[in-house]
Structure formats: C-alpha cells, structure tokens
Write a structure and sequence with these properties.
Blueprint (H helix, E strand, L loop, with lengths): L1 H22 L5 H4 L7 H10 L14 H18 L9 H14 L6 H15 L5 E3 L4 H8 L1 E2 L2 E6 L2 E7 L11 E5 L4 H9 L13 H15 L5 E8 L2 E8 L1 E2 H11 L10 E6 L4 E6 L4 H6 L4 H15 L3 E5 L8 H9 L6 E2 L3 E4 L11 E3 L9 E3 L5 E3 L6 E2 L10 E5 L6 H13 L3 E3 L9 E4 L2 E4 L6 E4 L2 E4 L18 H7 L4 H10 L6
Parallel strand pairs: 10-11, 11-18, 18-19
Antiparallel strand pairs: 1-22, 2-8, 3-4, 4-5, 5-6, 6-7, 9-10, 12-17, 13-16, 13-23, 14-21, 15-16, 20-23, 21-22
C-alpha cells in the first residue's frame, strides 16, 4: 500500500536528518552527494516544457534523479540568493544537512516524502521568510483523495483537546482531552511536526499556534495518511479508545459549513476604540501590509495619525496596541507607529544587505523576483555583500505632535512576525511598553525580506526565500529568540489585576470580538 511506505520513508528522512544535525555526515554521505551538479539541462527542459517537466501521478513514486536534481537546484538557489542561509546555522552544518537530504533521496520516493525533505530543510535553516508550497495540481488531488483527521484541536501546553468534531462518532465532545493519536502522544506528534513547520531563528520552538492552526494538513504532509485514526481520549479520569474514519478535505469542509458557518472576520485591518471614562484606548493593527490595508479603504499613516490625535484630545492614559495575528508587511508602518512612543531619535533598521542583485543562474525558474527598482542605491562591501544605503527605515524620529507618554500595553502572539516582530523588538528596547502574550515566532535580531518565488523544474513544487537580510541593533544574546513577554497571556495578567480598568473593560466591552 502507498501510505504505509510513505510513513516509513518519512522516518528514514527524519533519522538521516538527525544524524546530520547531531553527528556530522551520515555514512557514505559524500559518495551519494554530487558536488559537481549543474542545473542547466533541467532548466532547459523546464523552459522547453513551459513549466514543470513531470506530469505527476501522486499515487506513484518519483525517480531519484528527478528528486535529487530538484533538491540540488533548491540548494543552489539558497546558496546564491539567500544571505540568511548561514544566519542561524554554520556553513558546515548546512552543507552536511544538504548532503544528508540528497542521500536520503537516492531511492524512488513519493511526492510527500520529497515535501517532507524540503520542509525539514527550511525548518533547519530557520529563515522565517523562506519556505515551500505544494504544486498546484496537488490541491485538487488532496481535496478528494487524501484522507485527514476529522477533528479540530486546541493545544494547551503539551495537551490536545477537541475543538470541533467532524466525524460521525458522537462520543467525542468538545473539550475532551486526546491522549494519543495512532499510538503517539501529543508530545511525540508535536515534536515531529515542529521539525517541519515554519521556523525563524530559535523563536517559539514548540510552534504551538502554528501546529494548532494547520494540524490536519500538517499531520497529512509530515506524518501519515491512514484510512482510520485510533484515538485515545480521557473520559472521567479513564482512558477510552475510539476509531475514527479519516475523511477527505472536501468532506470535512462540507461538514464544517453545516456545523458552523464561517464567522466574518473584521472588515478592516485597522480598528480603534476609546473609553474616555476609563482613560483607555485600543488600537488593533491586523496587518502592516499597505496593499491589504488600502484594499479595505484605509491608509496606515493617516489612520495612525488620527488615532493618536484622538488619544491626545481625550487625554487618555492607557493605550492597548493589539498586534496578534499581524504577520508583518511594510517596516515603514512599524516605524510610523513607534514614532508616537519615542522622545528622541533611534535607529530602526541597522542595515539591509543582499547577496546578489539580479542575474541569477536559475533566472528562468523565477516566478516573482526580488523586487528591486531604480530608486534603490547599493554599495558592495568587502565581504562581497551589497548594502542598501538609502533604505528609508534606517532611523525613526519622534512624531512632531501627539506623542503618547502613558502606559502602553502591546498584545502579541506567535503570529506577530516580520515587520510586526521588528516593531515589537524595538518597542521593547526603546519604550516602557508592557508585553502580553506567548513568545512570537520572530527572531529579535532581524528578519529576511525581499522574498523571491521560484519553481523546482521537475516536481513543480514552489519555493520562496529571502534575498535580503535585515539586521537590528539587539543584544547578541537575544537575537535568535522571539520576544520575551511580561505575561504569557492576557488572562494571566487580568487574573493578577482583576479590578484594573483593562480587565473590566476587556471582559465587559471588548472580549473575543477584538481577537483577530
């Protein structure tokens, strides 16, 4: 059968990767890794075919030559274009990891085995602006042919709980704890998944929110695709085993719509509320990306100016800035926001550097380039990297008026990343803001950016990766981790301050309606 073999090969990839990380090169590693590889013939075939070369049948294995060629081309792309490749791993570590993965692809393998190898590579490199996505033809195949766990999960600490049940087994109730899935406990499952998920430096290493959001598809992509799931649940202090039939994504989506129609998201990315009688204001920023904000009929600069003008006019003492779910966007918007919290100029982005400015050897595989334009000025350094000398967000000046000097409370979560993570890191350095939430999945010392998108010629898998390295002037001891907050959750803070204006207002008038 197809799926059991996928499971075994995935574990082979994992064991080889762990060998590489912990013990150096695996046995015979150098013998199966071709260090004289040239991508030219593969790129020519891709051009001639006007797209991916292979017409994949996802039930069948792919020949090793095709898999190794695509992986070698990914390695070439990262080495040539991504200045963050050795940011959190040494060149020796990355070279060893690459060789190990190439050797693991020495036999024919299924498409999902190759995906697992790519996912572990991006996870090991730990550049949060680099990753992969399925070939387009895989999505309709997955939606009808791949069977998935018919549950939504809530992860609290190291425990799994049922959030929603889409199976026909009515014995499974919301809030019920799951102690095992197909023989694995939550710790084992989360550990396996975390080695394949999004990762930026060493931030948010358990990736709990990421795993919770994508659990069903992640389990399918990275662990197994069984026809049935053996679930062990805890009921009234005893354990009970139940069997669930796996369902297709299309079936689960259909059931999901009948159980609970999709709730409407906030209509705007920027929302402001104030309560003058409580001396409190709330500013939710769901995204820093101008294209998304403007599509909602808003302008970040104008809206932010109006927020702080209203706060000043009403004489409010407490400001809550909600960045939960804000995955980034334009650094200039973070700089604009920070200007209202400063009394003196500060450095914002320390430097932005590139490995190469266009003319890549894999040019014909690029779907979306690095986004350079004629206004950008560069100087080449002694180490051959290019510095963007006129980057517009190198410094932040205090706002001319309506600067806020009261208590700032900033809400973050694992999704507070990229430009929102940069703002959070610098607000921690330059202001007295109180931070509430889990560690965000965003390394504090800087980010990747200017993302390029390309396609691997044989499998058609799409990959994206940073071509720029953004650095901040942060304590070297803190650069790789996410932001250490003052309180893990809003509930924890409110439990300690139940009579505070924030706790009272949040419970009575804000609540879940403001959670993005």
């Amino acid at each position: 059968m197809y799926f059991p073999r996928v499971k075994k090969l995935s574990l082979l990839f994992l064991s080889l990767s762990l060998w590489s990380c912990q013990n150096g090169p695996a046995p015979d590693e150098m013998a199966c890794a071709d260090h004289s590889f040239s991508p030219d013939s593969s790129i020519e075939r891709y051009q001639a075919n006007k797209g991916p070369i292979l017409n994949l049948d996802y039930h069948n294995k792919i020949a090793p030559d095709y898999l190794q060629s695509d992986y070698q081309i990914l390695k070439l792309m990262l080495e040539e274009a991504n200045p963050n490749l050795y940011r959190y791993r040494s060149q020796k570590e990355m070279d060893s990891f690459f060789d190990t993965q190439i050797c693991a692809l020495s036999d024919s393998a299924y498409y999902l085995d190759f995906i697992r190898s790519l996912a572990m590579t991006f996870n090991f490199m730990a550049c949060g602006h680099s990753g992969w996505s399925h070939r387009n033809s895989y999505f309709p195949y997955r939606d009808t042919s791949i069977k998935l766990l018919p549950l939504d999960l809530k992860i609290e600490g190291d425990q799994y709980f049922i959030k929603e049940n889409y199976s026909r087994n009515s014995a499974l109730k919301r809030g019920m704890e799951i102690s095992k899935i197909n023989g694995r406990n939550p710790n084992e499952i989360s550990h396996l998944l975390s080695q394949h998920m999004y990762k930026d430096g060493r931030s948010a290493p358990k990736a709990r929110q990421e795993i919770e959001k994508y659990f069903r598809n992640a389990y399918s992509n990275f662990i197994e695709n069984p026809e049935h799931f053996e679930i062990q649940v805890r009921k009234h202090d005893r354990l009970e085993k139940l069997t669930l039939k796996a369902l297709s994504k299309g079936k689960i989506d259909s059931i999901q719509k009948t159980l609970a129609p999709i709730a409407a998201k906030p209509s705007k990315f920027l929302e402001f509320q104030s309560w003058p009688n409580k001396d409190m204001a709330y500013y939710r920023i769901g995204w820093f990306r101008n294209e998304g904000i403007e599509a909602m009929g808003q302008n970040f600069n104008h809206y932010t100016d109006s927020v702080f003008a209203a706060i000043a006019e009403e004489g409010l003492d407490t400001l809550i800035i909600d960045l939960r779910g804000n995955t980034g966007g334009w650094t200039a918007n973070g700089k604009k926001l920070l200007s209202y919290l400063l009394n003196e100029p500060q450095r914002y982005i320390e430097e932005v550097r590139f490995k190469k400015l266009g003319n890549f050897s894999f040019q014909d595989l690029i779907l979306s380039d690095q986004g350079l334009n004629d206004t950008m000025q560069f100087a080449q350094d002694s180490d051959s990297l290019w510095t963007w000398t006129n980057y517009p967000s190198l410094e932040v000046q205090p706002a001319d008026s309506n600067r806020f000097e009261g208590q700032v409370i900033i809400l973050i979560d694992e999704w507070t990343r990229s430009a929102a993570g940069i703002f959070s890191s610098l607000a921690r350095e330059y202001s007295n803001a109180l931070f509430i939430g889990p560690e965000n999945a965003c390394a504090r010392g800087g980010q990747g950016g200017m993302v390029m998108v390309a396609q691997l010629p044989w499998t058609g898998v799409t990959v994206h990766f940073s071509t720029a390295k953004y650095s901040l002037n942060i304590d070297p001891e803190k650069v790789a981790r996410g932001l250490k907050t003052d309180f893990e959750s809003l509930e924890e803070w409110m439990a300690l301050h139940p009579q505070s204006a924030l706790a009272i207002m949040w419970k009575s008038e804000v609540g879940d309606s403001m959670i993005y």
